[in-house]
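Consortium newsletter contribution from the modelling node. Members have asked for a concrete example of what our holo predictions look like. Here is one, prepared for the heme C complex that several groups have been discussing at recent meetings.
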Amino acid sequence: MKRWLGSVAVSLVLAFDCSAASRVEVEAAKGKALLQSNCGRCHAVSADTESPLKQAPNLWIVLGAWPSERLDTELAEGVGSRHREMPQIQFSDEDITAIYYYLHGEGAEVPRGRQ
Ligand code: HEC
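And here is the predicted structure:
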């Protein structure tokens, strides 16, 4: 009986955690997909992976190191414009939020105006 109660408690905790994390998870998955589809042709977009194009740095590392204001301005203005081969993509606010969540996850300080 005690054991049974214990596992019910564990499931409840897990269920609660899932619902609390779901927005972040959904956003993060979208952010990853956005980076993958727009930038993944050349850049690695997750930790510990190699970029398809050697000269292109791993975006998980590069973008992850940027403060949120920089991520905001650069992604909204189209980082790509600086690099000849790179497409110039201007991400929307929602896209940038998703990318932010992908890079920084749940514990991250949510950038101004993005709650
Ligand atoms: C066609 C290939 C290609 C695509 C697609 C591409 N990049 Fe790049 N990117 C590069 C290359 C090559 C470099 C490194 C050479 C350089 O800095 O000019 C680079 C460098 C960068 C850098 C480093 C800039 C710096 O100042 O150090 C950032 C940030 C970046 N890319 C972001 C992006 C983002 C965001 C996307 C998707 C929206 C993207 N790139 C798509 C080829 C690409």
